[in-house]
Write a structure and sequence with these properties.
Blueprint lengths: L1 E3 L6 H14 L14 H12 L4 E7 L2 E10 L9 E7 L3
Antiparallel strand pairs: 1-2, 2-3, 3-4
Helix pairs in contact: 1-2
């Protein structure tokens, strides 16, 4: 297993991972089928982590994304000291 950052051209793979997690667990924010495929939003999430604004690492095995951890900082001044943390790992 390898832990690494993502590049923007992997947005579709990352969306697929998050979408699959929506179906595998009741603990993610989105319910099954609720997540829309907005690749520009996913690319922005990846770009923000690459530029150091946020944090995103994925777990990969056999060239397949199997999990991730993300920390997205608050954008407004009053919550800039906080972060929204997400951890998702496929059942397998």
């Amino acid at each position: 297993m390898e832990y690494r950052t993502l590049s923007v051209d992997e947005a579709e793979q990352f969306w697929s991972l998050m979408n699959q997690l929506d179906y595998e667990t009741k603990y993610m924010l989105y319910e099954p089928g609720e997540r829309t495929k907005n690749l520009s939003e996913i690319e922005s999430i990846i770009r923000d982590s690459v530029e150091g604004h946020d944090f995103l690492l994925v777990a990969e095995t056999d060239n397949k994304l199997i999990g991730y951890i993300s920390a997205q900082k608050g954008r407004m001044n009053r919550i800039a000291h906080s972060a929204y943390i997400i951890v998702g790992i496929l059942t397998d």
